[in-house]
Write a structure and sequence with these properties.
Glutaredoxin, 24 strands, Jelly Rolls, 381 residues, 8 helices, ten-stranded antiparallel beta sheet, 2 domains, five-stranded mixed beta sheet
């Protein structure tokens, strides 16, 4: 594909510093359906390569490999984006773990989003104008820097810039706290003990996570990502008691801080992360599938504190983690990436609902046809 002339009339998406980087799913060297939002929590370097079949493309790939030590996956990772199928079939591009991966963007999905191909281009178009450039994203996946592509192979300014980046936790120039609410005294000690008693009396079932496959939301289980057991509360008296606490002590704070009127709650479960099973939950978001798109706020209420590990963190805002006091609620947007560290002693019991409103309930019901086998349909309040 050709580099565009400055007078090219085709319209391209324009990426500017401070813009949120578009999220997408695309085939990659490391996964057949890579979810780009999952890379948050570190700096991300993107090279819109177009293809590695010419001298300019090859020089950029060689420059990345020569600076591979920068891409450790903990502080910085690299993604190249190619639209040339020969880069895969002829083995021109290979991932190098940690830190170096490529997207096989043969249908142009990613390249159109970011402005490497015209927004009106179609898969299979020939002789399209194309743009090569570099992006550096901050840990919240906002664009921090845009670098033009050096046709002469002088890519060192990009790597010099990466070397002087501050630690991920100070990407904004100061240490930024995650945008969460911490609300003490939501549950009293008696209610916490009562909920733990329910779990211990009935036991819990291994719980998974939701994932999109073939246009359907399906439940998946992978102990590398999540190990937790859940008990579904059946007692109507306890459910109504919980509702009163949430209505009085959580909903008003969400209204005050976020100007959002939460009217509905999903899930009445007591969860258990146990040391004997290595309980944990890998970094994730709670609303990335059709079956979870209605969720607006997540709530995490610890029911005990006699455990080690099991701390809650928000990787987009640094590695700092918190152990929530008993009865305290942490409330946060379901779009925020969060994780639970491995429990190393004892058991962490928690109540973990989602809150939403009447408008989101309509979304939830409309998405019933997109739920896979074994995922419960929504039937009303």
């Amino acid at each position: 594909m050709n580099q565009p002339a400055s007078q090219d009339a085709r319209r391209f998406a324009a990426m500017q510093t401070g813009d949120p980087a578009p999220w997408f799913r695309q085939r990659a060297t490391s996964h057949p359906n890579y979810s780009f939002d999952s890379v948050a929590g570190r700096y991300v370097v993107m090279l819109f390569l177009v293809g590695a079949g010419d001298d300019a493309g090859r020089s950029a790939v060689e420059a990345v490999l020569a600076n591979a030590a920068l891409f450790d996956d903990a502080t910085v990772c690299f993604f190249g984006v190619t639209v040339d199928p020969a880069d895969q079939s002829e083995g021109r591009l290979r991932e190098r773990i940690p830190g170096i991966r490529y997207f096989w963007d043969f249908d142009g999905t990613v390249s159109r989003l970011y402005g490497a191909l015209p927004v009106d281009s179609k898969p299979g178009d020939r002789e399209l104008p194309a743009r090569r450039f570099w992006l550096v994203l901050d840990p919240t996946l906002r664009i921090r820097a845009v670098f033009p592509f050096a046709v002469d192979g002088r890519h060192e300014p990009v790597f010099d810039y990466i070397r002087q980046l501050p630690p991920p936790a100070r990407f904004a120039g100061v240490e930024v706290n995650a945008p969460i609410l911490v609300l003490p005294d939501v549950f009293d000690i008696d209610l916490c003990k009562r909920l733990i008693g329910l779990y211990d009396a009935h036991g819990g079932e291994i719980s998974g996570f939701m994932q999109e496959e073939g246009g359907k939301t399906v439940a998946k289980h992978d102990p590398q990502r999540k190990v937790r057991r859940d008990y579904l509360i059946q007692d109507r008296e306890i459910i109504q008691l919980i509702q009163r606490h949430v209505r009085r002590k959580i909903a008003p704070e969400i209204q005050r801080v976020h100007h959002f009127h939460a009217t509905r709650m999903e899930r009445y479960i007591v969860c258990c992360y146990s040391a004997e099973e290595g309980g944990h939950f890998f970094p994730h978001r709670d609303n990335t599938t059709k079956g979870t798109a209605h969720r607006r706020f997540a709530v995490s209420i610890n029911l005990n504190d006699d455990f080690d590990g099991g701390e809650l963190s928000f990787p987009e805002y640094g590695a700092k983690s918190i152990k929530i006091p008993v009865g305290t609620a942490v409330v946060f947007s379901c779009s925020l990436m969060h994780a639970v560290s491995k429990v190393t002693r004892g058991r962490r019991y928690a109540f973990l609902p989602f809150l939403y409103d009447d408008a989101a309930a309509k979304i939830r019901e409309a998405n019933n046809p997109h739920l896979g086998e074994g995922v419960a349909r929504y039937g009303g309040p």
